[in-house]
Each structure stands twice: as C-alpha cells, then as structure tokens.
Amino acid sequence: MNKRRRSNRSGGGCFGALANILTLVFLMGICGVFAGFFALYLNPQLNPIAELRPIIVPTVAPTITPTITPQQLPPTFTPAPTNTPVATPTLLPSSTPIPTETPFSL
C-alpha cells in the first residue's frame, strides 16, 4: 500500500510568517503608544508641543490685608415677627362619583 504522509503545516507559506511578523509589530506599536500616553499622564512636562504644555502658575505669597478683624462676633439675626395664621375651615370630604358608561365612537 502506498501511504502518503500528511504534514501538519498549513498551506500559508510566506503569508503565515508575514502575518505573524505584522501582528508582532502592531502589538509592539500599541504597547508603545500606551506607554507614551501613560508617561504623559504621569508627567505633562514631557509634551513636545509647547502650546499644549500646562502653564505653571507661581504660588502667591500671603500678604497682610487691611480688613478689620472684629474682637467679638456680631449679634445673631433676630427674625421679625410674622402674622399669626388664621384658622381656615376644613372642607368636608366629597363622595366619589359613581362610574357611568361613556359612549365611544370613531
């Protein structure tokens, strides 16, 4: 009997190796972009574009203000007296109407 030996290789040839190399290049590129964004997140001064760099505002030294500090707290606000409420009559509960048939036509 003539038995042929089957190989486990796919018929891709060069295309399979090229696809693997391109996949590796793209994955490394994605990792590089992620690392770049993470580095910019940690240190915004690494941004190469000068217009987009955050402005560093110098801290302001505290100065003595001419505001007078009171020796004691001011008196609390006393609310003005309001009009006393007048008793209003409470309405008696009304009875619920009995449902009736409503004619309907289109």
Question: Could you please describe the fold and organization of this structure?
Answer:
It is a single chain. This protein is flat. The chain has one helix and no strands. It is mostly helical. The chain has a domain at about 15-45. The chain has one helix at about 15-40.
Alpha-carbon distance between the two ends: 88 Å
Order of helices and strands: H
Report the structural category: mainly alpha
| Helical percentage | 25-40%
The dominant shape is flat
The whole-angstrom Rg is 42 Å
Say how many strands there are.
0
* Biggest sheet layout: none
Average pLDDT, rounded to a whole number, is: 79
Please mark out the parts with pLDDT under 50 across 5 or more consecutive residues, or reply none: none
SSE order and pairing:
Blueprint: H1 14-42
Structure characteristics:
106 residues, mainly alpha, flat
In short:
With 106 residues, the protein is mainly α. It has one helix at 14-42.
